[in-house]
Amino acid sequence: MNDLSPTHFQQREYSAAAKAFLARTPQLFINNEWVNSSADATIPVEDPSSGKEIGRVVDASDKDVDRAVSAARVAFDDGRWSGLPPIQRDRTMNRLADLLEANADLFAELEAIDNGKPKGMAAAVDVPAAASQIRFMAGWASKVNGEVIQPYTMPTGAVFGYTSREPVGVCAQIVPWNFPLLMACLKIAPALAAGCTIVLKPAEQTSLTTLLLADMVAQAGFPAGVVNIITGNGHTAGDRMVKHPDVDKVAFTGSTEIGKLINRNATDTLKHVTLELGGKSPVVIMPDVDVAEVAPGAAGAIFFNSGQVCVAGSRLFAHSSIFDKVIEGVAATGPFWGPRPSLDPEGHMGPLVSKEQFDKVMGYIEAGKRDGASVAMGGDAPATDGYYVNPTILVDVNPQMSVVREEIFGPVVVAQRFDDLDEVAKAANDTCYGLGAGVWTRDVATMHKLASKIKAGTVWGNCHGVIDTALPFGGYKESGVGREQGRNGIEAYLETKTVIIQM
Ligand code: NAP
């Protein structure tokens, strides 16, 4: 599948700027300052392209979390951010986006080094999308208003009733490792626009770009304590954030399993909770398509970001009449998606993020084979350092197999046949998840029928995984609670206050 020369999987040299960043002393960003942890614990930073440790970040203690929450609490309560004129919040946020763009190359390189995704992809997708989240939400800072409402049971003019919108308060934001910078910006942008203050924790595997973002927060001119960034483990630092009595809202993106735990843990203090969770998204290919055009789209739906995408099109349904041609077409993209180190400019797919993820994905592939699935492409891993898995297509699967039911979060697609629309809609919905779905057809009526039948937060037509900051995003069923982006995104960070004044 690849040119397997001895240097094929060798990671490229880091830039001087990246080396300098990696050589920094591990610290936390609290109150606009870099501070030492109260304890001495750190966690390793690994380059998944080589499997080597390349630095360390703080493993925040309970005391560190308390300090960050306290900074955010004080900053919220004295109104130093929410009390600013909206135009100033808007401008500060746009300055942050400017700084992000001005440092795009370093952000893209650090993301590639830390997560394993191709630097070119981080530069083309992650960094601009992160900046656009901030710019779009900055505009909402001046556009959230209440309304004057005439009461139903009272004479006109008897009382003056109106609503106002207020920020929810201190937000604990916890994000995963698949799009670290983008996820961080997706979280902070609506909270900042609403006037909230923040404690953000990236995933332990991928803290680098979020720490670089902290530099920009201070430079952009946010008041101290508005954005606090701590690194560390989920089951310790994350847990403390979720249970902290001074936190008003928890916004989480990650696995369904941890999302359920967080929901339970936030219950005692009845925090606002929004959850963006896992998926097992179907891609449905109807018989009227041009297979040569559609197959690369179906391949991209699963192999982009090494399949580590919440909306990855991991269940492929192709009509029986074109099934073999679709599989051939997806398999033909194998060389394009063959994994390479993240700094290889020729790469389109990198390694998986960690040894743990590599073992998990290979475990699923082996389970699929044991259960009777056939491998139409890949099904193995290159024998080299780093966490590379070859793009994989499994056929001859059935709905009971774990590879069909569970989120693999790797470059593995399971392909099934269908014969009619109702059958495929039922099969597409045969999952506990409901995040995304792709439908490929030239027939507009078929498109609308499937869009209405499939239970998912987003349905794509003749494309997959297209995300825009103006369009709401979130999950049905066990894929989440609430929506991010668009107007819905900022609503999730606002309270509604009703005021009734006797005239
Ligand atoms: P994960 O294991 O659930 O971790 C996500 C975050 O939660 C990490 O920062 C993690 O910290 C933290 N965490 C773990 N245990 C915690 C606890 N007890 N309390 C508080 N925080 C805790 O997910 P992942 O493996 O990083 O990411 C992959 C998952 O994210 C997939 O299921 C994917 O579908 C989902 N995802 C969903 C969306 C969406 O928008 N719906 C987008 C992207 C990803 P540590 O890593 O430091 O332990």
Distinct small molecules: NADP nicotinamide-adenine-dinucleotide phosphate
Count all strands and give the number.
Answer: 22
Cα-based radius of gyration, to the nearest Å? 23 Å
Strand content: 15-25%
Task: Give the termini separation.
Answer: 78 Å
Instruction: Tell me the number of helical segments per DSSP (H or I, 4 or more residues long).
Output: 17
Strand order of the largest sheet: 14-15-16-13-12-18-19
Mean pLDDT comes to: 97
Quaternary assembly: single chain
* Major β-sheet annotation: 7 strands, mixed
Contiguous runs where pLDDT drops below 50 for at least 5 residues: none
**What form results from the Cα inertia axes?**
globular
SS class:
alpha/beta
Overall helicity = 25-40%
List the SSEs and their pairings.
Blueprint: H1 16-22, E1 28-30, E2 33-35, E3 42-47, E4 52-58, H2 62-77, H3 86-102, H4 104-115, H5 119-140, E5 148-149, E6 159-167, E7 170-174, H6 180-194, E8 197-201, H7 208-220, E9 227-229, H8 234-243, E10 249-253, H9 256-265, E11 272-276, E12 282-285, H10 291-303, E13 315-319, H11 323-331, H12 334-337, H13 355-370, E14 374-377, E15 392-395, H14 402-405, E16 412-418, H15 421-428, E17 433-434, E18 436-440, H16 444-453, E19 458-461, E20 476-477, E21 480-481, H17 486-491, E22 494-502
Parallel strand pairs: 7-8, 7-10, 8-9, 10-11, 12-13, 12-18, 13-16, 15-16, 18-19
Antiparallel strand pairs: 1-2, 3-4, 5-6, 6-22, 11-21, 14-15, 17-20
Helix pairs in contact: 2-8, 3-5, 3-7, 4-5, 5-6, 10-11
Bound molecules: NADP nicotinamide-adenine-dinucleotide phosphate (NAP).
